[in-house]
Amino acid sequence: MTDPVSIRVTAVSLDDIALAEGRVVVFVGEDGKLDQLSRRVNRLTRGTLERLVGSERFEKLKVADSVSLEYPAGMTATAIQVVKLDRKPSVLDARKAGAGIGKVAGSEDVLVLAGNLGNPAAVASGIALRKYDFSAHKTRNGEANTVDVTMMLSKPDVAEAGIEDALDSARAVFFTRDLTNEPSNVLTTSEFADRLSAMSEIGLEVEVLEEDDLEKLGMRTLLAVGQGSESPSKVVVMRWNGGGDDAPLALIGKGVVFDTGGISIKPALNMEDMTMDMGGAGVVAGVMRGLALRKAKANVVGIVGLVENMPDGKAQRPGDVVRSMKGDTVEVINTDAEGRLVLADLLWYAQDRFRPSGMVDLATLTGAVIIALGHEKAGVFANDDEFADTFLKAARMEGEGAWHLPLDPAYDEALKSRVADIKNTGGRAAGSITAAQFLQNFVKSDTPWIHLDIAGVASVGTETTYAPKGATGWGVRALDRMIRNKFEN
Ligand code: BES
Ligand code: MN
Ligand code: ZN
Fold it and tell me: Which PROSITE patterns does the UniProt entry name for this protein (predicted)?
């Protein structure tokens, strides 16, 4: 697995600054005042820092942005990165500042002169998240992408646990990103299930349901999606039982390892992006990993449906009618609206077996949500406004974009089928909402439920604050935050 940084802490030692190899990072607030550590850097470089801080360049710098002074005289460092950040930064600013450090860090060591800076763990989190790079299939990079970071702190022992926690949380995100970035010939349904099963080593209970098990359970809508593929469909159940007798929170993920569209085949242009159509399952896996790493005091069950949507002689056809585990029949108008068929059975299975206190599903479900919200925010749908607000608040705290969109029975009209109980597409208008309405059909009205349409945010074509191009791991931190806030005892 990708693990791009090691971060250790050390006590303040002014004499080590002149001889530090690699990059040295200092923080200067908007007031321009230098602390003990930056004063030392300033003295070593004969006032360079003071000149920068007095300049228009520094004045115009936004909070958390930085200027790099390369090959400074008076120090062995190859660069001094001056970050504009107050001594008591907000968590978001501190994390953003860290991301700025991670973004420019190469393979050289980094010494972060944090001193008594507030929220050092958030800085560490930002460094790690942004330093990530998916290079598993680059043959010529070796170990060059791992960076050793040292944070020089006034009270290293006080900060250490928080920094370790931040790194564990980043590792959970990397697990999701690696899965989501992995090409579909590597991350087959079996490989995916194997990687999840391996998490039993960190204390998760993992169970893999095979096709004959799913057949017995009556999960026909899920199985129908995978029946045109050589790869067997699987459902993986991951349990973290840290919360005593509480009913669990259920996390459900769409894990379409590749979505060709099936017989309703997609056009060639950008079809390669559909390697990320298992992003919802990837997020569920990352959250579960995070819970185990930090030994959360909560009961959470993660359930993912791993299938491949391919067109062969056994593939389902448009017009087919299939029976869901719930018992409702579905007319498959478009085989490319496959995610909702997978989720329908998973949602029902989760409620039937676990009686969860709440249920959150994540899916790269519709192109329409990208038209509505672009790549900044995921679509949030819920049958319970209080639950939705709990999630939205957690997402805000973690800087992950999310926007509440409506559910309304009025949209059900679009899903009426001539031959079955419901059809799987509702036309072009409000495509994300009709998809959510379809899912709601499989949610009991007394189960608090959130549906997250992450098609626009799971993997993006341009870098973001916390991730390079590709998989973002969106949602891992927001869900972990929500669990910390509301589901832990
Ligand atoms: N996996 C796609 C949605 C998607 C599109 C994810 C773009 C990420 C980026 C989903 O299975 C799909 O094909 N949805 C169709 C639904 C339609 C046939 C009703 C869509 O959005 O076009
Ligand atoms: Mn599709
Ligand atoms: Zn899909």
Answer: CYTOSOL_AP
Which ligand 1 atom is nearest residue 261's CA? 13
Domain ranges of the chain: 6-154, 176-487
Domain 6-154 has CATH 3.40.220.10: yes
For 218, which DSSP code? T
Distance in Å, CA 353 to ligand 2 centroid:
27
The rounded distance, in Å, linking the Cα atoms of 17 and 148 is 16
| pTM score, whole prediction | 0.98
- Please state, in angstroms and rounded to a whole number, the distance separating the CA atoms of residues 431 and 435: 6
What does the pLDDT look like over 151-201, one tens digit per residue?
A: 999 999 999 999 999 999 999 999 999 999 999 999 999 999 999 999 999
> Probe ligand 1: pick from 222, 271, 365, 366, max atoms within 8 Å of CB?
366
Task: Tell me whether residue 421 is annotated as binding.
Answer: no
Give CATH for domain 176-487.
Answer: 3.40.630.10
Please confirm, yes or no, whether 266 is among the known catalytic residues.
yes
Identify the bridge partners of residue 110 per DSSP, sorted by sequence position: 23, 149
**pLDDT tens digit string along 423-452?**
999 999 999 999 999 999 999 999 999 999
